[in-house]
Amino acid sequence: MKIPSCSECDRPAAWTRPWDRKRLCLLHFNTAFLKRVQKTINKYRLFERNDTIAVGISGGKDSVVLLDTIVRLQKKHQTNVIAITIDEGISGYREDGLKYAKMAAERAGVEHVVYSFEERFGSTLDETLTLLDANTNGKRLGACSYCGIFRRKLLNEAARTVGATKLATGHNADDEAQTVVMNLFRGDILKTLRSDPVPNIKHPLFVPRVKPFRWTTEQEIVLYAHFNNLPYQEMPCPNAVEAHRGIIRDIMTNYMEHTPDALFSILTSADKLFEMANAVTQPKIKDKIVPLKPQECIKCGEPSATRMCKACQVQDMIEVAKKITNH
Ligand code: SF4
Ligand code: ZN
Fold first, then answer.
1. Three-state DSSP string of 157-220
2. Which residue's CA is minimally distant from atom 5 of ligand 1?
3. Would you say residue 226 has pLDDT above 80?
């Protein structure tokens, strides 16, 4: 069977883009991939000339490809890029991810720093879960809730410590569209409005987050890793059972078999909402849709939406659990 040729040249096509049926050879796939990421960076002004970019890298496909992409795109600007890995302390999983994260940083030629829950918060995620399991009558939150609370805080502290002015994460178009739909299904569209892709400095201690893969699909990221020989951790986290997101993902995958560009339509809708929200001037409405200005946590002094940050609240719970366990 003859392999169809690329829509841009005579080379054999390596992939047909589902949403516009465009056929791309390896070279033109890479060009199109980098072009869309650059377009995303420009659209939301994710980076500025003097930025130092911290890239959160877990060792999974999204972050490994993100680091490669950012380093390639920023080469001409000589931007300082630093890779940060958070070691949550998930036995049998994180060790493997760390290996891939280290490899990716070496290949990209960037400094790589590792910050651990154990060092910063006094216990690994595994220890925290065991402790809370034993002291909450099985009423603790899901593992990802604690993991997310601590990771967000530590990533911000780590990015600030290494002097980063932006913190880039590997959330892709699928993740972003799923989040919009999840918020809608939960009756919480305001939550979507609070995650404007344009980075705003909300607090001097807060390093603004950016998502350069907002318009890049998961399938493209897997292909990019494959075409460019970028090894990544394929083993899923043993705690990864976010049931609700799984259901939404299945519904969307099903729907997109017939309408492959639906993912982009969802993101376009979200962007229109941001535009409208940003144009609101009436203080009463604005207060509802604009994220609360972070205050400083009364315990640790880090930026927080609440009087005491969530991480400190959980740490207090852990201290209580430890005391009970030791008695
Ligand atoms: Fe943490 Fe959940 Fe991700 Fe595992 S799946 S690393 S527990 S957030
Ligand atoms: Zn705190």
1. HHHHHCCCCEEECCCCHHHHHHHHHHHHHCCCHHHHHCCCCCCCCCCCCCCCEECCCCCCCHHH
2. 240
3. yes
